[in-house]
Amino acid sequence: MFGTYDAAFVQAMYEEYLRDPTSVGQEWRELFENGKLAELPVIPVERAPSAVSRTPASAATPSLPAHAVPANASPITGPAARLVQNMTESLTVPTATSFRDIAATTLDARRKALNAQLAASGKKISFTHLIGYGIVQAAKRFPVMTHHFQEIDGKPHRVDPGGIGLGLAVDVEKKDGSRGLVVPVIKHAEAMDFAAFHAAYEALVEKARTNRLMPDDFAGGTIQLTNPGTLGTVASVPRLMKGQGSIIATGTIRDVAGAKIITITSTYDHRIIQGAESGMFLRTLDSLLQGEERFYDGVTESLAKTGTGESGMVAPKPPPPPAPTIPQSPVPVAASSDDLKYVAAAYALVRAHRNFGYLAAHLDPLGSEPPGDPSLDPGRLGLTPEIMARIPAEVLRIYVPGQTLAEALPNLRATYCGTIAYEVEHIGSHEERLWLRQVIESGQHRRPLSHDGKKQLLARLTAVDALERFLHKAYLGQKRFSIEGLDMTVPMLDFTIELAATHGTRKTVIGMAHRGRLNVLAHVVNVPYETILAEFEGGGKEETPENEGATAGTGDVKYHHGAEGVYHTAGGVDMAVTLSPNPSHLESVNPVVEGRARADQTNRSGPAAEHDVNVALPVLLHGDAAFAGQGVVAETFNLARLRGYTTGAISPRALTCPSSTSMPTIPKRASRPCGSR
Q1: Three-state DSSP state, 337
Q2: Catalytic residues
Q3: For the segment 225-277, what is each residue's pLDDT rounded down to a tens digit?
Q4: CA distance linking residue 139 with residue 127, whole number of Å
């Protein structure tokens, strides 16, 4: 029931009770008289004899010899001794800590705006109010952060409390002038709107500072917030006690290169919470504090509700006001220069996200923070939340949901600064750029898979993985470039071919690197397993100067030869698929694939050659380093724009496994002239 500092507080209350039972509240007397201290062992303290204390002097524990105690040593008793015991026990909890630097510019601006609205009511919103409410909303998304570890009958268990009780570390001044912390709990915070949360928060703080906390105020905590930042602490790693799952600590808001930054840490019990879960929890908290998912809109709406108080109840909405009787003037009102300035700044913000949003995208699978770009900060453009709420989204020609810039900006950030990055503004064709913007920002390409589609994807990935596992076990030690970590390459090729088939394409020409080539041969080109395995069994001829070319063997590399096959689409269309042969200088296959596709697209049976780009589709798969680092790639893209070389479309894929961790990434930038059609 009682945590680290609460137990010390209860110890002090118990000592007061021992001196004078009437000096504590009725609930405290019942707790002490009924012996419900349970997990709170009382530490004896020396005190004057009283009617309550009847221990005879002869029964007192003899003191240690004087020579065993240093002259400058003083005993730790009372609440301080309880704190020593708690801290010692905390060493048995295996913890880890996640750190995240969060931009506080939006948080600061929205807090000031809220306080301006509440000035007449006498209420005030602090940073901790908003962060605490954000923690509750993030914990609803990741309830594992509220679980705790318990050993039952000698076996480890994870305990789900079934709700969110947010413990608040409150600094209090004692009667003797010393300071300490207590941690009362906001119970069932997951069911509160912000107005109710704020009222409960303030009530607990007031009770703590007037020494009116009751035992029930400490019960039900599942996650704790501590704020050493008020003392100037940049970041902290608090101790985790038995029965706790996680503690969130906020540091002071500091200025870094003109930007306001706050460091938030998540210290968690590593037996039940993993680092990725803690990291995703902090990432969600970050996105909420940046205003995503209408976080501040919900706060504002909650505070604006009539009748909202500590109970969190909402009164019925008042009837709508009568329609104005004054006719509207048909003459448009001229916009002020300030309005035009803000609209221009808003459009600059939109362009910054389209051009540089990828710099703030979370593309690293290992979790490093992106560098970001100052142009993505609306504060630098003089755009406050109030100003953005006045700018209609339609004048900015954006396609994300939202009626105003304030509503649309979180969606724009989620689109361009999420886990997928887009960079299309360098493409020379205006029509192509416009089409790409519409598709990207409207989310047309993010259609969720159907139930059957999910099962088909699982079956496809299972087949891909099964082949790799078999080859690894059966031919261990033989040269093989696995598709492991890039398993989605095959479903991506499936989707590309299926989409091309619906547009009348009947042939696909593929050029690719060694990695994953066997799986593409087996599952896209449909080369029989027997043919592939024969190469491992020595069925291929050795490659020598005398038998180079199409008749050559592969030697110890099973990847130089090409293959032809038929891909059967879900719609019943047969697509001819050619995997072009290529040497170890992998990117040299690019112009060859383009040339083969161009030849397939050209009909020379008549008096004049007829070129139809829908007949064949070239697909190039690269490693991302080769994509940016070898000139043949850029040359192929640039030639694709010329009338005599174009194939109508190039479908490039950049694949990599950084540091042999088998994690796919996409290159952040190709050369500016490189653009696909």
Answers
A1: helix
A2: 270
A3: 988 877 788 888 887 777 788 999 999 998 877 778 999 999 999 889 998 89
A4: 18
